[in-house]
Amino acid sequence: MRISGITLPENKRLEIALTAVYGVGRPKALTIIKKLGLDPGMKTPELTPDQENLIRREIELFKTEGDLKRDVQQNIKRLKDIKSYRGIRHIKHLPARGQRTKTNSRTVRGNKRVTMGSGRRKVEKT
């Protein structure tokens, strides 16, 4: 089953399989399933073509995939252009939401890990 260019995994429950679409998380997947009166535990191959079309139509009401990614990138670009604090943090590849940077923030800054020792030289035993 394909929704907005994404093939849904066949071996997972429907509520989890729908999260393969960018912009659809667990809560939104569950609301869609409940609205259509489907069982969240069923797998995607068990769906009838009519049910697949209903799910497709329901998901197309939301912004997903390319449109959502484009909007997020435009919002970040706007923050960079107006030189806001968050925009500057994005430009410098630092955390933008107030997290500490002395330790952690490896995902944003990259893995430039330098392990520090105790500062003492090891004495060889003879």
Topology:
Elements: E1 2-3, E2 6-7, H1 14-17, H2 26-36, H3 49-59, H4 65-81, H5 85-91, H6 106-109
Antiparallel strand pairs: 1-2
Helix pairs in contact: 4-5
Task: Report the C-alpha radius of gyration, rounded.
Answer: 23 Å
Overall pLDDT: 87
Overall domain count: 2
Low-confidence stretches: none
CATH topology-level name of the largest domain: Helicase, Ruva Protein, domain 3
- Alpha-beta classification: mainly alpha
What structural keywords apply?
126 residues, mainly alpha, Helicase, Ruva Protein, domain 3, 30s ribosomal protein s13, domain 2, 2 domains, two-stranded antiparallel sheet, 6 helices, 2 strands
Characterize the structure shown:
It is elongated, with a radius of gyration of 23 Å. Helix content is 43%, strand content 3%. Strands 1-2 form a two-stranded antiparallel ribbon. The mean pLDDT is 87. The chain has 2 domains: 2-59, Helicase, Ruva Protein, domain 3; 66-109, Irregular (30s ribosomal protein s13, domain 2). With 126 residues, the chain is mainly alpha-helical.
